[in-house]
Amino acid sequence: xxxxxIIKEVGNWPAEERLRLIxxxxxxxSAPTGxxxxxxxxxxxxQRRLEVYRENPKSGSPWNExxxxxxxxxx
Length: 75
Prior knowledge:
By secondary structure, this protein is mainly α. Helices cover 67% and strands 0% of the residues. It has one domain (3-73).
């Protein structure tokens, strides 16, 4: 299965499941394979953002809206 197909499929999942997938993938970067090392400050910031999201998952914007805003501001 190609990446575009996977992303299309994942886009149909509930937000909580997509977040879980992101967390699982993110954990693969912290595996002891020489991946990127986050500072404690970055880890704390990510944890804080995750907690804010979990408290109110509908408070954010869907990726397609964020992407459209970013693309609109660069033109």
